[in-house]
Write a structure and sequence with these properties.
Blueprint lengths: L1 H23 L4 H15 L6 E6 L15 E3 L8 E10 L4 E19 L14 E7 L18 E2 L14 E2 L2 E3 L4 E8 L2 E9 L3 E2 L3 E6 L4 E7 L3 E4 L2
Parallel strand pairs: 9-14
Antiparallel strand pairs: 1-4, 2-3, 3-4, 4-5, 6-7, 8-11, 9-10, 10-12, 12-13, 13-14
């Protein structure tokens, strides 16, 4: 029986080898996916938070010539953020082709949310803030992730519990108030002049504010801590 089977086995070897050679001529889809994943993880390493890459389905019946060097790239107008499209091209002597693959880049990180209702004009404290781990790619731009950037800020409007904190919801505290008596400081090379005036508006640190001095003249200066307004000589 063994002797009879040998010719059949021998005759099948060329057919198998031919089929294997044909398969080897085409690009493995798994290698394309791996190239995209490596490209995305390498180029999002600087993002804060946990990056998760989901590469979309690639047609396994796609018959692309085998490529010695796969080159993933971001198409014009694309970005490495959220749902996007990533290109993969091959430009070699034996193969030239380009495909595009739908991809999603998820960035999980702690985002600052309002822990309890906050009234307009209220200064935020630690107990007013709650952290929620969310996909940053689905949040509005400029969302806060650093507690130090919001503590001590003042709410510009009423805030409801559960809202993610955004820059337009907060402002820096005023260091000068409208109608307040302020110290006017004029400093130059080798001299310093101090006098008093009345602030004509509220102002935060470093903001330009108008002040009326004792003689009634209106001047502009930079609001500083301790009720000081710096006047440029």
């Amino acid at each position: 029986m063994l002797i009879l089977c040998l010719p059949m086995l021998a005759s099948s070897i060329p057919a198998f080898a031919s089929q294997h050679k044909t398969i080897a001529q085409y690009q493995e889809i798994a290698l394309i996916k791996r190239a995209i994943e490596d490209f995305l993880y390498n180029n999002t390493a600087s993002l804060s938070g946990q990056v998760i890459v989901n590469v979309g389905q690639i047609d396994r019946h796609l018959a692309l010539p085998q490529c010695p060097h796969l080159e993933p790239f971001v198409p014009t107008g694309g970005r490495l953020w959220g749902k996007t499209s990533i290109g993969v091209r091959c430009d070699s002597q034996d193969a030239t082709w380009t495909i595009y693959v739908q991809t999603e880049i998820i960035v999980m990180t702690d985002v600052l949310h309002v822990a309890r209702p906050i009234a307009a004009g209220q200064t935020l404290a630690y107990e007013d803030i709650a952290l929620q781990n969310v996909n940053l790619a689905q949040m509005p731009e400029g969302i806060f992730t650093d507690v130090a950037k919001v503590i001590g800020k003042v709410a510009t409007t009423n805030l409801s519990a559960g809202q993610p904190l955004r820059p337009q919801m907060l402002r820096a505290p005023y260091v000068v108030l409208r109608g307040q008596t302020v110290n006017l400081v004029v400093q130059g090379r080798g001299f310093s002049i101090r006098s008093e005036g009345q602030a004509l508006a509220d102002a935060t640190e470093g903001q330009v504010v108008q002040v009326r001095n004792k003689s009634g003249r209106i001047m502009s200066g930079l609001a500083r801590l301790n009720s000081i307004v710096e006047i440029q000589p």
